[in-house]
Design goal:
Layout (H helix, E strand, L loop, with lengths): L4 H13 E3 L3 E7 L4 H16 L6 E3 L4 E7 L1 H8 L15 H4 L4 H15 E6 L7 H5 L3 E8 L2 H13 L5 E5 L9 E7 L1 H10 L5 H13 L8 H9 L10
Antiparallel strand pairs: 1-2, 2-4, 3-4, 5-6, 6-8, 7-8
Length: 243
């Protein structure tokens, strides 16, 4: 099978948010923040790759939005790329992606994963920075995370292929019943801009933070997608969220 950019992005999404069972697959996101993303990106991509019309729906009991796809064809498609039942702690980047030298394929996989299990955030600065940088959240950072160490090692390998500098580290959990989280952090304007140039985000929950930051030179924390849309269309002044 030829690995297209669309297949790569579907695999990235599934590695992050997908679940494989014997007779069906399912993919779920946040019931409010990810709704636009599922309707405009995820469902059309999966429909094309799996050759089956897919529509998302709410699952209010879990506060998620997504879909099931029943049948062996969908199950076998993902098993072909090494996906397994109960993949959370064992999932890895598919070998076909790791072995690829196609930057479009690599970028698409990383984007699919980051749209679901990553994101961009803005931080305040400390020390000898301007008062503006200390008061407002101006410093950009992209994070990718998983409880599967070998998955994050694979993501790091792909980022190196794109020459995107990053830090690989482990967030230790204090409770004995919680797993450590392997993380990748991409810090600073230059590195974040390189990510946006080569990879970007398709999830408005992420891309809207970047757009607000580009427009205002900062992005308030603890905002939702609807608020960021209003900042971008001029109906909400982001400075008001600091007072």
């Amino acid at each position: 099978m030829i690995i297209t950019s669309e297949i790569a992005e579907v695999l990235g999404i599934f590695v992050a948010d997908g679940c494989l069972q014997d007779n069906y697959i399912c993919v779920w996101g946040n019931i409010t923040e990810d709704r636009d993303y599922y309707n405009s990106i995820v469902c059309p991509l999966f429909s094309k790759v799996l050759n089956k019309k897919i529509l998302a729906h709410e699952k209010k009991s879990n506060s998620v939005y997504g879909f099931y796809v029943c049948g062996k064809d969908a199950v076998n498609f993902f098993r072909r790329f090494g996906m397994i039942n109960n993949k959370t702690y064992l999932v890895n980047v598919p070998k076909e992606i790791l072995d690829s030298n196609d930057k479009g394929v690599i970028s698409s996989f990383l984007r699919g994963f980051a749209d679901c299990d990553g994101g961009i955030s803005l931080l305040r600065r400390k020390g000898s920075y301007s008062s503006f940088n200390k008061e407002f959240h101006t410093y950009p950072r992209i994070d990718l995370r998983s409880v599967s160490p070998k998955l994050v090692t694979g993501l790091s390998f792909l980022l190196k292929k794109l020459s995107i500098c990053h830090t690989l580290w482990v967030e230790k959990r204090r409770r004995s019943n919680e797993s450590d989280i392997s993380r990748i952090t991409i810090r600073g304007i230059g590195r974040v801009e390189k990510w946006m140039e080569l990879i970007g985000f398709n999830n408005p929950a992420q891309s809207s933070r970047y757009s607000v930051w580009k427009k205002f030179k900062f992005c308030p924390v603890r905002t939702n997608l609807e608020q960021r849309k209003r900042m971008l269309n001029g109906s909400l002044d982001p400075y008001l969220l600091y007072h």
